[in-house]
Design brief:
heterodimer; A: mainly alpha; ABC transporter involved in vitamin B12 uptake, BtuC; 2 domains; two-stranded antiparallel ribbon; two-stranded antiparallel sheet; globular; B: alpha/beta; Rossmann fold; six-stranded mixed β-sheet; four-stranded antiparallel β-sheet
Amino acid sequence: MTTLGSRRHWTGFAIGLVWFFFILWPLMGIKPGGLEFIPALLVWARIAAAALFIFVLWLLRQQGALGFLERPAARLGAAVSGAARVVPRTAWIAAVLAASMTLPLFAERYALDVAINVLVYVCLGLGLNVVVGMAGLLDLGYIAFYGVGAYTYALLSVHFGLSFWLCLPLAAGLAAVAGCIIGYPTLRMRGDYLAIVTLGFGEIVRIVLNNWMSLTNGPNGILGIKPPTLPWLQDGLWGVLELRALGGLYYVILGLAAFTVLAVYRLNHSRIGRAFEAVREDETAAQLMGVNTFAIKLLAYAMGAIFGGLAGAFFAARMRFVSPESFTFMESAMVLAMVVLGGMGSIPGVILGALALIALPEVFRGFELYRMLVFGGVMAVMMIINPRGLWPAKRVGQRSEERGHG
Amino acid sequence: MSEPILELRGVCAGYGNIQALREVSLKVLPGEIVTIIGANGAGKSTTLMTICNIVRATAGEVLYQGRPITGLSADRLPAMGLCQVPEGRRIFPRLTVQENLEMGAFLRKDAARKAFDLDKVFNLFPVLKERRKQPGGTLSGGEQQMLAVGRALMTRPRLLLLDEPSLGLAPLIVAQIFSIIRTINQEDDVTVLLVEQNANLALQTASRGYVLETGSVVLEDSSANLLANPDIRKAYLGE
């Protein structure tokens, strides 16, 4: 034990444990009757024991004492990833697609509900990824475009009875217009300033939705939005099938998510995508190379908004009710967290990020009251361990011939 | 005497309340290498940035091929044959070397000539060809400078503005880059306006020079005369 780890390591570990206790104590100990000490201490002791175990394992590994375990594990890992690489990428995509296509056949209602949520956030995350990951513009008010899309379909459906499929492009278009309107005055700013201004605009959209009683019915929201419909063969006649059931809605959002993935992938590999990256890397240099940086940034904003608008229209059709409460800053922060956690600029990363941030809180329901605490803790730990994200972008816009030479 | 390719007439510019350029006037004739020398903070880089309208001119006029370009957005210039290699190289660090070069040809649609130019840049800088799949940020300082020059050449410039290409580079690399600047000038007929702190090297490369002091042109002469001028030798050549 004397040689295990340096004094510095152990001091850091001890300070960490003491720090954690002082976080935990008030959280668990403050009760209506006064300050309790014992329950917090018990929980702390259990967590401390687990942490000590992990810490000792980590130290042993640092000293190479776990080599007898690690070497076979590394060999196994290499074999698995080697085998994985033999399978072409299209096969992986086909497998994921097949799995998601067949999900409604065996998933129960609750799981399907979570899956729909995940897919909505996949669309949002990928849309924000165009703005933040590719063009490097930090946008804290992204959810505004989701709101514009949702209200577009809600209003057109309730007042004019327009169909979901007709409203989908309209919602995307209006979100893009909103993106340009918001982008035009804000995109002259850079970095932190831009983030603050987008935050302000996001709030403005929510507050307008909340207060424009005659149009949006304010905080009461809009009821009676129609679900998506499909033409359907009915008693030998063409009728209309309302996709009220979750299964039908699931396929609609799966289609939208697939469209988003494809569109963002194509964008990543296009000339425009390259210009987004150049602006992110060095705006002045990009301008000196002939890139109209203002137009490109506006385009990035509008394109990101389009996917937000599509997701919003679906959201309205699925909930059949919209109110400004769904478009708070918290939602923007969630979507941004997905992009950062998953890996900025990486399509599989953002999908994983959406999966993690929507599905994990469901998994943590077992922790009951401490659910969000555990969730926040896991997020913080993940960012410390791997700040580049769950599935980091190797480099956005990498072409196939460059892959595998790493 | 032929029409100047670039002319500055009484250009003033500044940052906030600080005036960085005071009525700078200069001319560059087609085919020349002209240099602007001066101490740190004399306004050399600001002059180039004002030509490209990254810094706005508060007074005066910039003419390119006889046409006023004052106030014209910087991104319109490469298509007109005016390209700048900015100070500090400013390559795109996470784009590969080849993608950096392709960004130089962003506006061009002529695929065949683009490929031809890419080959030419690779011939001028063979090290870039070796490293074409590497991210630009992983190159050494000298290689990054070569990449910045190569990227600018991909725009097919008629006038190249070079800002401190020798900054922070080893003497051997500097000599290599300056010899390439002369090659570009002679073989491809690219006019060069060179901003340099290394006055000795700049004057040996250029045919004429302007001396900038606290934002004003204080002297203008042929390189030979400037090199022989005792004041210049004392102030800028360390004698």
